[in-house]
Amino acid sequence: MAEGLARKLLGPRITVQSAGSEPSRVNPYAIEVMAEVGIDIRAHSSKSVETIDPTTVDTVITLCAEEVCPAFLGKARRLHWPINDPASKDPTLSREEMLARFRTARDQIQERLAGLAALLDAKPA
């Protein structure tokens, strides 16, 4: 979700790369809630932080809250936005509860990225 939102909000002015500590697949709930805001992430893939060349990165944003944050080596500026992982293996959560969790995470990420975009726009070229 973060990659899709960052590409939309930050556009061509920066290169966006997204990765995590335990890549698997793009969650179907993430695909659904992103479609609600007009962003198609069906073609996205879950990538490992180990696949990112640290020399190509200026800023790292970690979104982990309670889970383990991926380690990223390099000299990049680091921002930490503790956002709860909406994915859950709890079988008692209904579809609507899962969608609500993903919408909350999406909206929190979008709010933070909008703030970052405003800072970038205010910065002289």
Structure description:
This protein is mainly alpha-helical and 125 residues long. It is built from three helices and two strands; from the N terminus they run H-H-E-E-H. The protein has helices at residues 2-10, 28-35, 95-122, and strands at 59-62, 77-80. It has a two-stranded parallel sheet with strand order 1-2. Helix 1 (2-10) packs parallel to helix 3 (95-122) and helix 2 packs across helix 3. The radius of gyration is 15 Å and the shape is globular. The two termini are 28 Å apart.
Structure summary:
This protein is mainly α. Helix content is 36%, strand content 6%. It contains 3 helices and 2 strands; from the N terminus they run ααββα.
Q: Helical amount among residues, as a percent range?
A: 25-40%
Largest sheet: 2 strands, parallel
Order of helices and strands: HHEEH
N/C terminus separation = 28 Å
Radius of gyration: 15 Å
Count the DSSP helices. Answer: 3
Strand content of the residues, in percent?
5-15%
Mean pLDDT: 87
Number of strands: 2
Structural class comes to: mainly alpha
Unreliable stretches (pLDDT < 50, length at least 5) are none
Shape: globular
Question: Order of strands in the sheet with the most strands?
Answer: 1-2
List keywords for this structure.
125 residues, mainly alpha
Mind sketching the topology for me?
Blueprint: H1 2-10, H2 28-35, E1 59-62, E2 77-80, H3 95-122
Parallel strand pairs: 1-2
Helix pairs in contact: 1-3, 2-3
